[in-house]
Amino acid sequence: MSFFSKLFKMSSNDMAIDLGTANTLVYVRGKGIVLDEPSVVAIETINGVRSTKAVGNDAKVMMGKTPDSIQAIRPLRDGVIADIDVAEQMIKEFIRKVAGGNPRPWSFPEIVICVPSGSTAVERRAIRDAALNAGARQVFLIEEPMAAAIGANMPVTEPVGSMVVDIGGGTTEVAVLSLRGLAYTTSVRVGGDKMDEAIVNYVRRHSNLLIGESTAERIKKDFGVARRPDDDKGQTIHIKGRDLVNGVPKEIEINQGQIAEALAEPIGAIVVGVRNVLENIPPELAADIVDQGIVLTGGGALLKDLDVVLRNETGLPVVVAERPLTCVAEGTGRAMEDPVYRGVLMTS
Ligand SMILES: Nc1ncnc2c1ncn2[C@@H]1O[C@H](COP(=O)(O)OP(=O)(O)O)[C@@H](O)[C@H]1O
Ligand SMILES: [Mg+2]
């Protein structure tokens, strides 16, 4: 390596970005993950003029607590870019935060961004442009299931079928990969958000209690189960919210068996997505999956017993990746750093 290219490499801020519906992670070459924040932007509108008030952690704490003039937006909520301007603001702000102020011309970074496999050409272009406007020298894209599989150490460069199920906030991506490509992929609009909504709805129907989505998410993370516990009930939990009949705050009891019942529908939708892929892949790849099994990534993979449910429903080996929440960011970072994966990076 010449002196100049060494200098260039050392001073560069090359980064890999996992642009998730719930969380955005940034991985810097040689450093690993340096930023992990919610994909949320707080927008203030005064006299019809919109301005960005806060991004990431600062914006998430405002959710559900903002005055009318401020709106907390999740620009990628359902896996598609609902609001491209806001998404662009968010990408730029995260890049600025990591690069620190104005990058000097010789340190303009190369950026690899992970996009949902179901995103359209227009959405991908918009994401690319946002990164270029933020000072990127060159932008590459990588499809999320590929990044997840690399992060989970699956043999994506070999002629062997690997199956990955990434359960994020807004979507679940199911894919079979082989020889650096996606052999088959599908995206279901069901993930952690739909599980939270299912808990909110269940508590409302059963106990006339209104709870917020953040409360539901906390219950899901701490006590959620994908199937009824062996004694049918499991632990009992106390939940506070507002009584729908007389409008005052109250507390109710619910058990883990009931939470499993509440989550049955979104989990059923994920099972259907997995089955669809298994039924549509060529037999040679199907045979590989019988040996290799299915790897679960994304925050939703942390739901207790989800692996057991998928194992029972498919009859295949199912394992949860070691670090489901950071797997995609690590895979995107490795795709940037390791020349072996150059072939999976796309320019558009
Ligand atoms: N322990 C847990 N149990 C169940 N769900 C979890 C757990 N931890 C995180 N999640 C859920 O994972 C989702 C976020 O996962 P993530 O992979 O970051 O999504 P995305 O890639 O779409 O941004 C959220 O819906 C969150 O509630
Ligand atoms: Mg993700």
Key terms:
348 residues, alpha/beta, Nucleotidyltransferase, domain 5, Actin, Chain A, domain 4, 3 domains, binds adenosine-5'-diphosphate, binds magnesium ion
Radius of gyration computed on alpha carbons: 21 Å
What sequence of helices (H) and strands (E) makes up the elements? Answer: HEEEEEHEHEHEHEEEHEHEEHHEHEH
Strand content: 25-35%
- Structurally, the number of domains stands at 3
Contiguous helical run count: 11
The strand order across the widest sheet is: 3-2-1-7-8
Question: CATH H level of the largest domain: which superfamily?
Answer: ATPase, nucleotide binding domain
Which CATH C-level class of the largest domain is it?
Alpha Beta
The kinds of small molecule bound in this structure are: adenosine-5'-diphosphate, magnesium ion
Instruction: Determine the CATH topology of the largest domain.
Output: Nucleotidyltransferase, domain 5
- Principal-axes geometry comes out as flat
Mean of pLDDT = 91
Number of strands: 16
Structural class: alpha/beta
Q: Can you tell me the residue ranges where pLDDT is under 50 for at least 5 consecutive residues?
A: none
Helical content stands at: 25-40%
Distance between the termini: 29 Å
- Biggest sheet layout: 5 strands, mixed
Secondary-structure arrangement, i.e. CATH architecture of the largest domain:
2-Layer Sandwich
